[in-house]
Design a protein that fits this description.
Blueprint (H helix, E strand, L loop, with lengths): L15 E7 L12 H14 L3 E2 L5 E2 L3 H14 L5 E7 L9
Parallel strand pairs: 1-2, 1-3, 1-4
């Protein structure tokens, strides 16, 4: 079920949708001092540019299940012709998925 922004553009232009995530509080590893502030500031800047922030706020210090659910909800909220931006501030990790 999509819980994201449902506002439609009425002037024919694509909607501008953004998902902003900032994670600084990690169970293992070094805490990141600026990522939450970066996500908040990015949300403000994107709103000034006409972007609709998913659920009207940046997502901060999500756990795995919360992040997975938010990503699915955001993906489900996207419609044809939408302009979509994903911003993540935090540690990155890459692994192969079978």
């Amino acid at each position: 079920m999509a819980t994201g922004t449902t506002i439609s553009s009425t002037d024919g232009r694509p909607r501008k949708l953004a998902l902003v995530i900032g994670i600084s509080d990690y169970q293992e590893g070094k805490k990141l001092p600026n990522t939450v502030n970066d996500a908040k500031e990015m949300s403000t800047a994107l709103e000034r540019m006409g972007f609709l922030i998913h659920d009207n706020e940046p997502k901060l210090n999500l756990k795995y299940k919360e992040m997975r659910d938010i990503l699915h909800a955001f993906a489900d909220s996207i419609k044809a012709r939408d302009m979509v931006l994903f911003y993540f501030a935090g540690h990155g990790r890459q692994w192969e998925v079978c």
